[in-house]
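Dear colleagues,

For the upcoming journal club I promised to circulate an example of a predicted protein-ligand complex. I picked one with zinc ion because it came up in last month's discussion. The inputs are reproduced below in full, followed by the predicted structure.
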Amino acid sequence: MEIEVTKPVQCPFCGHQTEIVVDTSTPADDLTVDCERCCRPFEVKLACSPGKVLQVEVDPG
Ligand SMILES: [Zn+2]
């Protein structure tokens, strides 16, 4: 089973789509992602079970 899963997320400021690598061994995690295009940081809230991402929520903070 792959514990690391790649997920697409969309920047809430400019709409640019980027991919994040999620460690699904952590049930709930908050990541801060810097947008490659507009360079603004945003928060991604994740809910996971091992090998699977259950929920991805983008929060502009
Ligand atoms: Zn952006």
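Two points we might discuss: The longest strand covers residues 41-49. The chain is about 0% helix and 60% strand.

See you all on Thursday,
B. R.
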